[in-house]
Give the backbone structure.
Amino acid sequence: MTTDRLMALDLLVSVLAAAAWVSAGVTAAARRPRTAAALFAVALVASLARVWTVLALAGAGWWFVQEKITVALPLLVAAGGVATAIAGPRLLRAARRADAASRDAVRAPAVVVPLLGAGYAAAAGIVQTFLIGYPADPGTALLLLAVAAGAVLGTWRAMSTHVPGLRTATAATAVAAVLGAALVFVPFTEETTAEGSAPGGAAAMAATGSSSHVHSAEGGSASAMGAPARPVTDLRGPAAPPPGGAVRRFELTARMATVTLSSGRKVSAWTFDGQVPGPPLTAVQGDLVEVRLRNADITSGVTLHWHGYDVPSGEDGVPGLTQEAVPPGGEFVYRFVAAQVGTYWYHTHEVSDLGVRMGLYGTLVVAPKGTAATGLDLTLPVHTLGGVTVTGDRDQPLVRQAAPGTPVRLRLINTDNTPHRFTLAGTPYRLVAVDGTDLSGPGTLGRAGLRLAAGGRYDLAFTMPSGPAVLRIDDRTDSVRLTPASTGDGSAGASATATPDPGAVPAAVPAAGSPTADWPELDLTRYGAPAPTPFTSRDRFDRDFTLVLDRGFALVNGRPTYAHTVNGHAFPDIPTEVVREGDLVRLTVVNRGRDTHPWHLHGHRVLVLSRDGRPVTGSPLWLDTFDVRPGEVWKVAFRAANPGLWMNHCHNLSHADLGMMLHLAYEGVTTPFHGAHGG
């Protein structure tokens, strides 16, 4: 059974156990011994099942059971044991007799209170897991114990005028509540690096505000360590291109506008240059890209973040960290060398959940140096705008013709907050690049579903066949329809198929109109051919960070919120990850929750080491965004070779807005900005 299903089963049996214990107590109080006995049996079975699911989940990692083993199970086992020992025999005797005296006996506090107490304890465990979240700590444990104990005492007092030891028990409960509240709500000095890393006393302060503080893996200031401080504003792109490169200058103006989709539907949007998506930016490897951003009337401000592109930190477009947001009437110039070839995109990072949804995004494609464009090359950003799925600016299929035998490349970009599933029918094809990086030995595909994470990119390549080919989104929306063009002699040309790579698996080619919902999902960790990488999971890592993703109540920018949390905290209270230039860094990303989290680190590509403990056996996967589904554990690594201050966050931007983001900082790098990122 998968971890995700075990998590769902654990939730089911935990709710069933709590409901059965409480129901047994209520029916006992209602003088229904046989029903109460049956519910008591259900409660026992459900409690034992809860123990089993927790032990089974422990096999997936301590992260999935920490609060269950330290809080939920001890409460359930202790309270359930008391109920079984005290109430169980009385309840079973009454059920066998079922006379008036027995019915009166089961409503006694000695029966009802232990049964309800077990229900309160089971419910406290549910509250810890689903409202408080990971990790359980002594403060929350004491508070939950006090609440459960208070509920037991209140129930007992309501049923009886005499409760032995009531004052002592009440005093002990009050002490536990006060101590728990003090541990939870009174601030104490914390480590300021993410879980599993070396401590860093100044890191969080530097990441979130003053230029008089710098990031340090040992804590303290740069001067105290003898390390020179570097402001992030000095980490900018060059003024001139490398030898042989050209300068590609672009101007983008952010403004509100009404855009017209291909169907004629009009949508109110936030735009670059009055269009959604914004103007496509193209360059050749080695060029200097210069983009002047102006803000006409976006009152919240705007920036440009180059998603997946490893620009210098000062060009990364993170408001409050690398620059201030550009206000209405303001401008900012970005410069960076187009060193990476492939498919990328840009978007605002100020109030980004709203800004990107409303249309502040566009595409960036960098071509290899010294190669001429051939065939049909389509860049296809997919977005939900005004409640409809659009490809580019079209809410209807894009129809193009290509002569059979023409090389075709489809560049898929998911600019939404959630994953999309793509299928291509009518031709064999290869998935040749992911997140801008070419794959090694990509095999021929046919009947496959391609799940693309929010923010991610896939490049598909094939030779135009003699019949139509259809790209579909989410098994229901035709995005692109390619039809064969005449070759000039009135024929459609000879049938053409993609040349298979050595070792490629032959793939059945479904017709263009075929249903796709039952097509199996491609496992990227098994696709393609292995190739050498600069490091592997067997290397020694200089920094090792663990990020446990969950939900729970936390402070988000000072407001109590049911947040998306990392290691039990929400931005800006998530400790900063601090690295030195040259460090080999490993990230373990664990998803305990019920939502998918597309994880995105700025300024670096990461190499996937394993997913759920299984190493990558296909092509090496260099990603900038990877989907961490419920119950999954990803291990990825990168070389810290791009000094600066960087965001590390969920790219479901609504999750980031609710707290799921943090900073990664290089030692000695400072920021003069406020650090209170705008979303």
Q: What stands out?
A: Residues 66-97 form the longest helix (32 residues). The chain has a mean pLDDT of 89. The two ends are 37 Å apart (CA to CA). The CA atoms of residues 41 and 253 lie 68 Å apart.
